[in-house]
Design a protein that fits this description.
- With about 240 residues, the protein is α/β, with parallel strands linked by helices.
- It has three domains: about 35 residues; about 45 residues; about 120 residues, Ribonuclease H-like superfamily/Ribonuclease H (Nucleotidyltransferase, domain 5, 2-Layer Sandwich).
Length: about 240
């Protein structure tokens, strides 16, 4: 029996190229009766009805559930559907869940550091405060130790380089020591210019590094996950005070 590809080829030669049955049989090395059978078959225009699937009535429910709870396990969704009349197997449901589940976000490795190895520092805005008759913008300098989560913060009325350095000095005095590495966002107080891995540091920060014997290390551009400790510290201060 001819496969579908050969049958389609025969029908093309006969109906489109107007070859004779004998010519087709000779050129393709098949029997003329096989050519006639390929021309008479209705498998190419027979409408095939799609068989209904037992999960079809529940697809929209699964889609909406995964939209709200992307990490919900298929077994939990199975229990939810059982209470709504689903009588199929969990295997069938797993196929639907795998197809509809939103794509997971990029996974990141958990940060693992030694005591005193790394700190993370950043500025954060905290609105405005009234000073006399004027309203002043309030900024907070935060620095946290990645291992112990020890946090030092200090509020300033601006984010000048002097206050940036002052915040470091006060933190080191409070801790009676300095971390070996401090991780930063790409602030102007830290990075004057960056082209890929080529970084031009702010010379005043380098003076502070030389005095306190620590290294300044900027994060990669648009890689906030690399300084998750300080981001969580900022969120903690915003929500707790």
């Amino acid at each position: 029996m001819l496969n579908l590809e050969t049958q389609a080829h025969i029908r093309h030669l006969f109906f489109a190229e107007h070859w004779k049955i004998g010519t087709i049989a000779q050129q393709l090395g098949v029997h003329p009766d096989a050519v006639r059978h390929a021309l008479q078959t209705d498998s190419f225009h027979r409408e095939q009805a799609l068989r209904p699937c037992i999960t079809d009535p529940y697809v929209e429910f699964v889609r909406e559930t995964l939209k709200n709870y992307p990490q919900l396990r298929a077994t939990r969704i199975f229990q939810m559907l059982r209470g709504r009349g689903y009588t199929g197997s969990i295997v069938q449901l797993r196929r639907v869940v795998a197809r509809l589940r939103p794509i997971r976000r990029e996974a990141f490795l958990r940060l693992c550091v030694f005591p005193g190895e790394q700190a993370q520092a950043d500025w954060a805005h905290f609105g405005e405060v009234r000073v006399g008759r004027a309203r002043r913008r309030l900024s907070c300098f935060l620095i946290t130790l990645s291992y112990s989560r020890a946090l030092y913060l200090e509020f300033f009325f601006d984010q000048t380089m002097e206050n940036f350095l002052r915040g470091h000095v006060h933190a080191f005095q409070a801790w009676s020591g300095t971390p070996r590495i401090t991780l930063y966002d790409n602030l102007k107080s830290v990075v004057l210019e960056r082209r890929g891995d080529a970084i031009l540091f702010n010379p005043r920060l380098l003076e502070l590094c030389g005095h306190y014997h620590f290294l300044a290390r900027p994060c990669q551009v648009r890689a906030g996950n690399q300084k998750g400790r300080i981001e969580r510290a900022i969120r903690y201060v915003r929500e707790s005070f």
